[in-house]
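INFO worker-7 received task bundle
INFO bundle size: 2
INFO processing item 0
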Amino acid sequence: MTDKKIILTRGLMASGKSTWAKQMAKDPSFARVSRDDIRLMTQDTAYGGPIDEDLVTKIETESVKAILNAGRTPIVDAMHLYQRQINRWQRLGYPVEIVTFDGIDLPELLFRNGIRTGVVPEHVVLEKFDRFTIKGSGGSLKPVKLSPKDFEVASFEPYVPNTRHPAAFIF
């Protein structure tokens, strides 16, 4: 690997992730990838309704790969609250840097959410705050961890069906 890396934002909605990522992306060595923007672009909604999250994930992943291949640093602008979300990016085999936006208390978070474009329903903000912050901490997020530097990246060959055999159905 080279000195390429993936930067992940991590924080609750309205914590400043997108504002920071947009500012950073003004530097041509960075490029911002946003799940919300991908949802808007492909399904005309960022929240609620039936959203094809598998499609969003595929576009997000391929965008990050293309940015890396272009020699730029991707900033993945999303909440990244679950460990599995961090692990997914590490499996690409590049170093991952997490920029955390926390320490924002609930009244401030609700205020920020109420004045921004794309307001998230209040019950969702309350649920995420309760679930992902340390009780009594003033909004500090529960920790996630990066895997050790010797994190092994699994490599798989794509399946190519043998057309000489009949189709198989797996249930």
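INFO item 0 finished
INFO processing item 1
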Amino acid sequence: MDNVIIYFLGFPGVGKYTIAKKVSDLNKDFLLIDNHKTNNLLFPLINLDQPIPDEFWDIVIKIRENVFEAIEKFYDPKKSLIFTNALYENDTIDRSVYNRIETLAKQRKSLFIPIRLNCTTEELKKRIGNPDRKELYKITSSAYIDNLIIGNKKVIITNHPNEINVDVTNL
């Protein structure tokens, strides 16, 4: 596939990276840029069991922007990309991250496909505790999922005409 940007969105543990990796393994024309490729440059520097300070995220955003700039300047516009992220509705920073990738797609004249992954809370709690996640500096606490649910957090709604919603509970 030429010049496609797929953007997997969903709660931590839903399977964004797992599915994105499978797609990129099956089609070598896709470059996978998982959100942890940028985050993990910095995550070893802080205690992830405590709230992450806003100024830390400011630095992550700068790194991400450098990645986007490098894609714009150097990555073959005929090639395709896959991004992953846990972005939430009513969060201005998350909305700006989503908008940045949508803008990147427009600049590249890419077919843009945001895919919202979801599964049951029970399944999320099982998946998030997977020990492999800790090695990748990913959230591993089922209490985090409880806090998302209690706080009525929702995965960002893109309102994009190509948005696809997929229930991955049974995958």
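INFO item 1 finished
INFO post-check item 1: DSSP finds seven helices and five strands in the chain.
INFO post-check item 1: Residues 68 and 84 are 14 Å apart (CA to CA).
INFO worker-7 idle
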